[in-house]
Every structure is written in C-alpha cells, then in structure tokens.
Amino acid sequence: MSLFKKVDDLRSEFMQALASNPALSDLEQIRQNFLGRKGVINDLFKKIQEIEADRRGEFGGLINQLKLDIHDHIEARINEHRGEEKALSSVDVTLPGIQVERGTIHPIESTLRDFKQIFHRLGFSVAEGPEIETQWHNFDALNFPPEHPARDMQDTFFLKNDSVLRTHTSPVQIRLMLEEKPPIRSIMPGRVYRNEAIDAGHYCLFHQVEGLYVDEHVTMGELKATLELFCREYFGESVKLRFRPSFFPFTEPSSEMDVSCFLCGGQGCRVCKQTGWLEIGGCGMVDPNVFKSVNIDSEIYTGYAFGMGIERIAMMKYGITDIRLLFENDVRFLKQF
Ligand code: PHE
Predict the structure, then answer these.
(1) Closest ligand 1 atom to the C-alpha of 308?
(2) Does residue 80 sit in the same domain as residue 120?
(3) From the CB of residue 51, how many other CB atoms can be counted at a distance below 10 Å?
(4) Are 243 and 224 in contact (CB under 8 A)?
(5) Buried b (16+ CB within 10 A) or exposed e, 290-323
(6) Which atom of ligand 1 is nearest to the CA of 283?
(7) Which pLDDT belongs to residue 1?
(8) Is residue 227 part of a domain?
(9) How many separate helices (H) and strands (E) can be counted in the chain?
(10) Does 112 lie in the same domain as 67?
(11) Quick check: CB of 170 below 6 Å from ligand 1?
(12) CA-closest candidate to residue 252, choices 206, 209, 295, 298
C-alpha cells in the first residue's frame, strides 16, 4: 500500500473516531493515538525515507496538514465539552424563581360552577342551546303573543332571517322538550342579550341559569322546596325566600323570587335598598300553551320552570357595585377574586 494512501486512510480513521461523539477522556486517548510520541502520525513520519527523494517534500506537507487538522478538531471538541460543563454549572438552583402571573376564575364562572354543582346534587343535568335563536324558539313557542312588548326593538337584538340574539335562556326549554321525553330535569346556563341602555346595573349581555322539571304530578310545592333548598345551599342556612305573584307568558301561575338580604340579614342596607330583600329571578308552572307547542300532553304532564340572573347574584355575593366591571376584564379587578 502506498504511503500516500496511508495518509488518507488515517484521516478517515480519525474522522470516524470523532463521529462517535467521544467523551472528554476519550478525546485525550484519541489525541495520544494519533499525535503522541508513539502515535501513528509519528510512525508515518519515520517512513519518509522510503519515499523517492523528489516526492518527500509533498509527503511531509500532507502529514503536517493532517497533524494540524487533527489537532484543531480535537481542540474544538474539547472546547465544546468545557462550554457545556460551564453552562450546567452556571445554573444556580438556589436562586428564587421568576414569579409567574396566575389567572383566577372569573366571578361569573365561579358562580355558574356553584350553581351547577348544587343542582347536580338535586338531580338536574345541564343542557345548552344556541345564542342566536329563531323568533319561534325565543318567543312564539313560549306563548308570547305577537304584539308582546318584550319583542320590541328596545329589548331585542333582531338579526337577519327572522333570528334574534336570545333575550333569555327559556328557548333552551323548548329545544329540550322537543328533543327529550319527560321526565326532564335540567338546568340551562348561558349568555343572553338585551338591547338596553348600559349603566351600573344593566349591560347588553348577561348570564342566566334556567331550570326545568317536567313529569307527571309536578307541583308548585316542589318548585318552592327545590328553590329553597338551592338558596340555603348557596346563600347560607339562615336565608329566607319570598315568592311574589308576577307574570310571564310561559308560566301560569308565575312568581318572582326574592331572598332575604344576606349582607344585612334582612335589616335593610344599601345593597337591598333598605328593603331587606333581594330579587334573584322568576319562576312558575309551565303554561299548557308551551306544552302544546312542543307536543307534550298537558293532561298527563305538569312542570315547573325558573330563571335566575347570574350577574345580579354574583354582584351581591362579591359586593360588586357596577356590572360593567364583569365584562371589562381588567386584571386589577379580576385579581381580587
Ligand atoms: N325567562 C324569564 C326572564 O328572562 C325568567 C323565567 C324563567 C321566568 C323561567 C319563569 C320561568 O325574565
């Protein structure tokens, strides 16, 4: 084998040794094998006598170049290793960490979660419906007469093709009764929209939780008992509940519900406007006309329904005085919960 070829072979042998990513101690061993006094490069130098005189200069140059290259490669690798070591040792695990800003649960969301949890224990499942509704689901099927003032431009956001932004969660009752056969026992949380002047107490969107129970022999007594249980769970043992006669097209009889003010214990304060009572929603027995529009036989089935405003309840519970704060998502406000 020509000695010239031997130089090429040594070069590839070295590159192969490097390719296996040798550790620092192995690199030292490789350096010895190639560049050491008894290394293969020196051996090759000794054979220079065997080359014909006029090519000895060329041969010596090649070996020198190989020697330099090997030296450079090994130095570069050693530096890489040292850099890694340094990077590792520069991590000071005793330094305090960087503070990460944690989010909190929005007061509306946490109120909704509390509602769902309590009604879950009372046997209610959770149903949802679309926020863009047909006028039929939002009004007609719920027994609103065509000229009912709630359809007025002042309250309802009308959309194209006979659609509206739902003004309450009651249309989900309709969807549920069309889909399922009684017994039905569900709550329906969600956003609703009203075209109202915005102030501390009113916003163009808010949340409601609707409740519906349809079965044979459902009574107004059960409605009262269920809501009383709920209120005691949510507001506390000492809370009192008051039902005031009212009117909704989709319930008969209808009633408004108030709880005794849990801030002043019914003594009268700024939040309850000195009345001792806080209004939390509406309720009543499902009107037979509603059953008719969803093909449920009102001779066999009865039902009750209720609807509560989440913002009002959250505002009372957390002492929030302006509804707009709940929609601005200012972290300085949200951080407090
Ligand atoms: N949908 C009524 C409202 O938005 C509330 C309600 C629901 C009343 C169910 C009675 C029964 O005001």
Answers:
(1) 5
(2) no
(3) 16
(4) yes
(5) bbebbebeeeebbbbbbbbbbbbbbbbbeebeeb
(6) 10
(7) 55
(8) yes
(9) 12, 9
(10) no
(11) yes
(12) 298
Q: Containing domain of residue 21, as a range? A: 3-89
Same domain, 201 and 62: no
pLDDT of residue 98: 86
Residue 34 falls inside a structural domain: yes
Answer yes or no: is pLDDT of 40 > 80.
yes
* pTM (predicted TM-score): 0.71
Q: Are 304 and 220 contacting, i.e. CB atoms less than 8 angstroms apart?
A: yes
Ligand 1 mean position, distance from CA 321 (Å): 24
Per the prediction, the chain carries an average pLDDT of 91
Nearest residue to 156 (alpha-carbon basis) of 141, 169, 167? 167
As a whole number of Å, the end-to-end CA separation of the chain is 84
CA of 69 to the centre of ligand 1 (A): 86
User: How far is 273 from 312, CA to CA, in rounded Å?
Assistant: 14
Q: What does the pLDDT look like over 166-177, one tens digit per residue?
A: 999 999 999 999
**Do 115 and 85 belong together in one domain?**
no
- Number of domains observed in the structure of the chain: 2
Ligand 1, atom 6: closest residue by C-alpha: 307
